[in-house]
Amino acid sequence: MTDPSVAASTERRAQLAGSLARVRSRIVAACAAADRDRTGVTMIAVTKTYPASDAVLLAGLGVADLGENRDQEAAGKAAEVAAAGVDVRWHFVGQLQRNKCRSVVGYADVVHSVDSVRLATALGAAAERGRDRVLDVLVQVSVDGDPARGGAVAGSADPDRGLDRVAAEVAGSGSLRLAGVMAVAPLGWEPERAFARLAGIAAGLRPDHPDATAISAGMSGDLEVAIAYGATHVRIGSALLGMRPTLR
Ligand SMILES: *Cc1c(COP(=O)(O)O)cnc(C)c1O
């Protein structure tokens, strides 16, 4: 008799291998359509709401980059995955509170969601104390210019949320590296419009920050459009792991 937990894990592994193959072929096709090199796009598997065992299975299938959106869930999961002897890069992609910076710098390799000067300052201080390697940071941008839903705003005079100021704060920190920008397409916007605008914002940042080349855009439903508009990182949850029980 097969141990039922082993059978379940074998079945889950096969399921994840299937969805991973489908997502990878979508990425390959999107790169071909955009005349881009496949190596220019990193897929991040967003494992939120799914157990560490799924993260370990994905890593075993060759996924090197995993993402989470809440520190409370991510910290434990990252520790479990590390305890399993699995080495991955963790991307923190969710809204980040300043009081969580100390925890996040302990496991994250990249933070995609820095959207204010105050948060950049807090994260820089936490990274300075809590890690021995520089932390890669993407500035999260609000493409519709509405700061209420999060994101720095290009051209804003707000000293805390203006994109140039947030970028300068990250770039000036000795413990952070400004790697690029991130955005989520606003509700009700065509992804083409959102990602075209993000590409423009990213280009606008480059004269001052030539190494900030990363563009984190595109999720399960719109990765092709994001790749067409230059995404270097796509963040894929449900297409890999399945529909989440709650929307978040
Ligand atoms: C959950 C999440 C994703 C993945 O979304 P899917 O639609 O499930 O692919 C990507 N980015 C962020 C910031 C997320 O919170």
Automatic annotation (TrEMBL):
Residues 40-245 form the Alanine racemase N-terminal domain. The modification N6-(pyridoxal phosphate)lysine is found at residue 48. The keyword Chloroplast does not apply. It comes from the Bacteria. The keyword Cell wall biogenesis/degradation does not apply. Its cofactor is pyridoxal 5'-phosphate. GO terms for molecular function: pyridoxal phosphate binding. It holds the Pfam family Ala_racemase_N. Keywords: Pyridoxal phosphate. InterPro entries: Ala_racemase_N (IPR001608), PLP-binding_barrel (IPR029066), PyrdxlP_homeostasis (IPR011078). PANTHER family: PROLINE SYNTHETASE CO-TRANSCRIBED BACTERIAL HOMOLOG PROTEIN, PYRIDOXAL PHOSPHATE HOMEOSTASIS PROTEIN. Belongs to the pyridoxal phosphate-binding protein YggS/PROSC family. Pyridoxal 5'-phosphate (PLP)-binding protein, which is involved in PLP homeostasis. This is Pyridoxal phosphate homeostasis protein.
